[in-house]
From TrEMBL:
Name of the protein described by the UniProt record: ABC transporter ATP-binding protein
Alphabetized InterPro entries for the sequence: AAA+_ATPase, ABC_carbohydrate_import_ATPase, ABC_transporter-like_ATP-bd, ABC_transporter-like_CS, P-loop_NTPase
Residue ranges of every copy of the ABC transporter domain listed in the record: 10-246
Key words, A-Z: ATP-binding, Nucleotide-binding
UniProt GO MF annotations: ATP binding; ATP hydrolysis activity
Organism: Cellulomonas terrae
Gene3D superfamilies: P-loop containing nucleotide triphosphate hydrolases
SMART domains documented for this protein: AAA
Length: 260
């Protein structure tokens, strides 16, 4: 973690990325501190997932500055991101339904004792991670196929904690979940913050965003279009930044909807 609380855990400055003639990101700035949940919101095609892939090393920006704890870094690959303490959960989760909870948490990063898998140590660490996140999982030996969608998302979040990351990026973690499952996942996100991690939450659900975020950053057409304090910003002001409408436009639409 950053020793100086004023120094962001992650700082992006003027990040730009093109795909041919398409400007996916244009001069994007973003700061995330430890013990903070920053929501990244915007309409489809706003650049949210593209920026997540830049942070996680899947994509390399054409220009811009990336700093971790105030030091300039490059993130040329997912393994480089992991080495810098960045963990990401994309929408597909990348989990295996035929494996149990422990095997999924350590998938691709199994612990060995000589030439054999160290199942005992992995199970012990899995239990510790589940306990730290207060995850409601029946057992670390439960097959993933027997878990609910919310519990699977929880396992994907637990998997990020292998290697003690400093920053966790969550891409639409509550998509297609029930109300109860969403509430559980939001609790786990709050727990990540309590444990000292910086969290980037990408979501279309403004209720979820406002429930757990400290700050809300809006992208529109690949550009910054507003940064809001989650506790004080109005729904209308955030919606205006997302859509490009004025606050007055959104207030008029809200009143018209109430008259129907």
């Amino acid at each position: 973690m950053s020793e100086n609380p004023r120094v962001p855990l992650l700082s992006l400055r003027q990040i730009s990325l093109r795909f041919g003639a398409v400007e996916a990101l244009v001069g994007v700035d973003l700061d995330v501190h430890a013990h903070q949940v920053v929501a990244l919101v915007g309409d489809n095609g706003a650049g949210k997932s593209t920026l997540a892939k830049v942070i996680s090393g899947v994509l390399t920006p054409d220009s811009g500055l990336i700093e971790i704890d105030g030091e300039e870094q490059t993130i040329p690959s997912p393994s480089a991101a992991h080495a810098l303490g960045i963990a990401t959960v994309f929408q597909d989760l990348a989990l295996c339904g035929n494996l149990d909870v422990t095997s999924n948490i350590f998938l691709g990063r199994e612990l060995t004792d000589g030439a054999l898998l160290d199942d005992g140590r992995m199970e012990q660490m899995a239990r510790s991670i589940l306990r730290d996140l207060t995850l409601r999982i029946p057992s670390v030996r439960t097959p993933l196929s027997e878990l609910s969608a919310g519990q699977r998302q929880a396992v994907a979040i637990a998997r990020t904690l292998i290697g003690s990351p400093r920053l966790v990026v969550l891409d639409e973690p509550t998509a297609a979940l029930s109300v109860a499952q969403t509430a559980e996942v939001l609790t786990y996100i709050e727990r990540l913050r309590d444990l000292g991690h910086g969290v980037i939450l990408i979501s279309h659900n403004m209720n979820d965003v406002r429930a757990v975020s400290d700050r809300i950053v809006v992208l529109r057409h690949g550009r910054n279009n507003g940064s809001f304090d989650a506790d004080t910003a109005s729904y209308e002001s955030i919606l205006a930044a997302i859509t490009g409408a004025t606050t007055q436009d959104n207030e008029m639409m809200r009143r018209m909807a109430a008259l129907r």
